[in-house]
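ASSEMBLY PREDICTION REQUEST
Request ID: AP-0331
Submitted by: J.K., bench scientist
Number of chains: two
Total residues: 878
Priority: normal
Notes: Please return the full assembly, not individual chains.
Input sequences:
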Amino acid sequence: MTDKKLITPRKLQGFWELMPNEEIIFEDILDKIKNVFKINCFLPLDTPIVEYSDILLAKSGGDLDKEIYRFNKGDNDICLRYDLTVPLARFASMNYNVLDFPFKRFQIGKVYRGERPQKGRFREFYQCDADIIGESLPLTYDAECIKLYEPCFKALGLEVEVEISNRKILAGFFESLGLTDKTIELMVIVDKADKLSKVDFISLLKSSGLNEEQIESLLKILNAKGNFTDIIQKVKNITDNTTYQEGLSELATIEKRLQAMRMRDDTYCYNLAIVRGHNYYTGTVFEVYIKNKRNLGAIGGGGRYDNLCGNFIDKQVQGVGMSIGITRLFDILKSENMVNLQTSSVKVGIITFDEESLSYGLNLMIQLRENNIKADILSEEKSFKAKMKEANRKQIPYVIICGEDEVNSNTYALKNMETSEQVSLTLSKIIDMLIKNNE
Amino acid sequence: MTDKKLITPRKLQGFWELMPNEEIIFEDILDKIKNVFKINCFLPLDTPIVEYSDILLAKSGGDLDKEIYRFNKGDNDICLRYDLTVPLARFASMNYNVLDFPFKRFQIGKVYRGERPQKGRFREFYQCDADIIGESLPLTYDAECIKLYEPCFKALGLEVEVEISNRKILAGFFESLGLTDKTIELMVIVDKADKLSKVDFISLLKSSGLNEEQIESLLKILNAKGNFTDIIQKVKNITDNTTYQEGLSELATIEKRLQAMRMRDDTYCYNLAIVRGHNYYTGTVFEVYIKNKRNLGAIGGGGRYDNLCGNFIDKQVQGVGMSIGITRLFDILKSENMVNLQTSSVKVGIITFDEESLSYGLNLMIQLRENNIKADILSEEKSFKAKMKEANRKQIPYVIICGEDEVNSNTYALKNMETSEQVSLTLSKIIDMLIKNNE
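STATUS: Completed
Returned structure:
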């Protein structure tokens, strides 16, 4: 066309971008989850994608730095956010005096991590979080976060299975062994246990200071999985350490609340090997799976944390939150063929022939749209045959033909593209019929 | 609490962040507009917020650079997007062979400009665009974009007034004066006319080479405003320049299409002084106002552009698009008191007293939520009085009391907080009543 040098159109690697037929499904998933959050009385929050670096990095050691998109603009040292929790802490700290605690907020938004892109790992992806924060939060809120997965998954046609634990149990156990200073190190090892061979796992525990007998007790805890009565039976006598027993007692309260909240027994269990990767969790922790698809990995998780705002204000703000790995979930649904990507965005394709027919068809199109029916004129300049081909290609379920006969008789020829049936109807009849067929 | 040095919690200046009661309204606005876009058969697109710098800056001269958030990450020179049009061009170019043209897409997302923050100007704000792109687009699509404002505004309870022109009219006029090379310069002056005194405006025109007589003709064009018949009458004989007459003829087609699309006469007019700031517009241009509130300024605009993908691929892709200044619109609605920020996010507050009452109340809460009723336990650890205060403060319309009597009789005391009426009902009656009251 021109001699101008073209720039190769390309997208940054690892950045999330869907084709429109996928995007429809993805946004539908987000809308359904948002709706559940709202019914559950969570308020929406939308924080900037960019924050001051000292705010975002307040909590982290230097470790996070290389994963972060950090840059200067004018005199400002700024970052793209890497999660939605630090922005919540900043927001809650700035608005501490005006927020009504307990404050229940949800946020669904993009976050950025400069990781090496690989299957299932993105540099830009969505996080979807619901948290409850307040000065003092009863355990009812922990149970509420766990229960919340059930309606979220149900809205997507999925059944849920949540696995629950409490970090105080392992922390108390390590405390009882005099290994309090090694707790974080040991939690990390336990968190990685899934990815380690049993031999490697045990050798790591040994090098952290556990002897054979202690390891045996630990394995007894880590293997405790099942309903509340079962696991308590198995682990209650392992140590009378206060923190340990407090963890078990908190689980007992969670169990009572989940029962009151009508959580079905087959949608959750206790698994004391759950610790979650983040060390800011201090009590309840949980992970969520698609029922009978544990092999696909956790689709989300969350837990109880203390001192959310500790880096910013001199106030105690605790929280408990749940998160859904929405990008991952979408990937899974797609690869398991659990989403229908073939749905047409057009319900009715209108075929016109000349100026008069076009005016006649546009009038119809607008009146259908006013009745929430997705109607569109098929490419006006193409031939009848090309228009029918377009309707087929786009899988449009109905076609309306605005020929000379129709214009003259003030009717419309409605063709069901699946059955090939064609009927001649007045405008009001067409609208009635299509409204009835509109999902 | 600790001696640790605190970091002052703060947000970057000019970055958009709403309080939750505002965010509810804002998201409701976005949802309503998205729904209209979908009914009008536009497909959603969500491109990354970060793009390669050479892609984003392909179109601009150097001018844009200082307004742009540009940085390096590893070997990549990247930018935060400053609009949604260049990402559309990149997307369409990358997917040229798989997209079905005409391709109708909408996108609502954040964009970034390093401008000096001031009232009504943000560094991070939302853009809301709907565009139709294709190899050859009949003017029906221009009319469709204009008409689209009407259902969008209607969904928000607003009436619309669109002002329409065609850039070919002024371009043809300047061409007829032999000033083709000054067209862009003159368009910029015309675009700024609103902000200039008449004296300054005329002196600028003179220094661009127009004589008194030519300025008089130009003013005749610029002052042409009204319905189609009126303005054509006024300007049709000014010049027989082909481009000029083509502009008028395109307006005639737009007029015919808008009439076919049932656009009400009092919701649009022609105003030949409209040129829009962007020089990529080549034909139809329009601006939108809230009806009878032209003083609040344009709430959006758009137009026809050629060669969307010209920087990336050797293919002709034209487009026509409409945009709504959603951040500005929200600001206006707020300052004009046209949004109700007082709506409670909780419909039913549940008051419990002890363990048994709490279980009883949680069971109720979940069943109400399962019926899409926003129910929440009022702060469980506070006193009855504090709970009632909380219900009042949060403007919760109903309170349900789960006292000993209620637990024993398996009923619930439902209190209407506005009328103070209180009735004792069974669970199913409560649900029936609240479903009926649910908006």
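REVIEWER COMMENTS: The two ends of chain B are 45 Å apart (CA to CA).
SIGN-OFF: pending second reviewer
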